[in-house]
Amino acid sequence: MNTRLNSLEEMEVFAVSFIKTLSKKKKEMGAFVVGLQGDLGAGKTAFTKSVAKALGVGVSVTSPTFVIEKIYKLPVRAPHAGGPENEIFSRLIHIDAYRLESGSELTSLGWEDISSDPKNIILIEWPEKV
User: Fold this and answer.
1) What is the pTM of this model?
2) What whole-number distance in Å separates Cα of residue 48 and Cα of residue 36?
């Protein structure tokens, strides 16, 4: 899906809609994995911040360019994640694959475990690298 957003406000509205749509999908196997593609400065991290806000993450979300991965535990009560109780997602995992050479490097991040957990939502910047 390609979506063009012209402001941070539009991105926040879209992120809420995005989370509501995902929350309606029954997921029994594996995490929701979302690849975020675009040039440097295109808004990949800004979108992740908007998704984190929609999921109730209360800490500052920054790009994991140098640490590769950041994991955010989601609150039990998230504003847009499946109603009053967050029954759909328990963790937001943000990966920036820009500095990775291949998909095999995801193994050291525990990819098999995080991608197999249906309570995880994983946003990957630069998915074409892996």
Assistant:
1) 0.85
2) 9
